[in-house]
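Posting here for the record, re: 6-diazenyl-5-OXO-L-norleucine.
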Amino acid sequence: MTSNSEMERLKRSLPEWVEESRGQAAFGAAASYIPELAKAPNDALGIVVLGRDGDSASAGDTDLAFTLQSISKVFTLILALIDRGEEAVFAKVGMEPSGDNFNSMLKLELVEPGIPFNPLINAGAIVVSSLISGNGPEEKKERILNYFRELTGNDRLGIHSGVYRSESETGHRNRSLAYFLKENGVLDGEVEDVLDVYFHHCAIEVNCAELARMALLIANDGRDPLTGTGILPRRFVQIAKTFMTTCGMYNASGEFAIRAGLPAKSGVSGGILAVVPGRYGIGLVGPALGRKGNSVAGVHLLERMSRAFDWSMF
Ligand code: DON
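Prediction output follows.
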């Protein structure tokens, strides 16, 4: 089957599949530990699948805007790697799945040398935020926002100030992680400044089409397939894609690798960025989260699509 006819099948099948997966939202709930996120419509589900020729298939609530949350961590990692290089970044953050919740501090004390297990859990992403170049938090935040504007092709991309404020006011677990990292000598700079940068990039607001565009860059090894322009270094995209496969869905990463077999990254807003390497970028949102913090309806839909089109990398 040619990829073209596959896209046509996707266009035909997605509306029905989205409606079927939407029912799974009843088994989850929108995140509430960041109070503003609890306002999201629980049973929303939207998806955009973008191909290398610019053709796309979409269905459901694709107009819903949502914040990147942990999805931003894939790209801040790439930016930190561009700024500091592999050696400096991996001196401060590990390469292994943690087996703990995304906001856990357990292993920071238990396992020497007290660096976060990987850059996609909160502790690791906070360290990564501290490694991004810039003169003070305002310049760093501006720089990161401009980077995401380039990745999405939307120069009006902004943050959701309500979510940003809500997390700044209530993010005490992240504060304790950051102070612990500071004590361990892993975090340089002022804790509140680093957290401000971190909360800010988590609150960047996107839609499914923008997420799909970011995903397509990963799928295409950092090059924009339409213009052929290199936007992200191939090696760093390779690193990011590997982390997405081993840690992108937190403690459900192994299960997702078996059931869907695709690099993906979820966020607590219900967004998932998924990649069919060399072929498609996928952006979806479904705010109701399951026990392990991933969109229940979104995971259900991705697993079904992967099975139907035999997308698993493994
Ligand atoms: O730091 C937090 O808790 C959020 N800003 C991001 C966490 C997140 O998205 C984890 N995802 N599943």
